[in-house]
TrEMBL record:
Native organism: Neolamprologus brichardi (Fairy cichlid)
Family matches, as InterPro entries: Glutathione-S-Trfase_C-like, Glutathione-S-Trfase_C_sf, GST_C
Domain named GST C-terminal: residues: 1-49
Spans traversing the lipid bilayer: none
Name of the protein this chain belongs to: GST C-terminal domain-containing protein
Length: 58
């Protein structure tokens, strides 16, 4: 669920503005200690979206 919502935010940053529960879910997930550490590490891949051959986000 997180990955799908994150991709939607990448394509349309304001898409979750009117959905407090989804925004809170995203924030809580990103704040989990191990998730936050991973997202700050060089292993974390913000893009491209979909797979290695995708062009979006390059």
């Amino acid at each position: 669920m997180y990955e799908l919502l994150d991709e939607h935010r990448a394509l349309e940053p304001k898409c979750l503005e009117n959905f407090k529960n989804l925004n809170d879910l995203m924030k809580r997930f990103e704040a989990l200690e191990r998730i936050a550490a991973y997202m700050k590490s060089p292993r974390f891949m913000k893009g491209p979206i979909n797979n290695r051959m995708a062009q979006w986000g390059k």
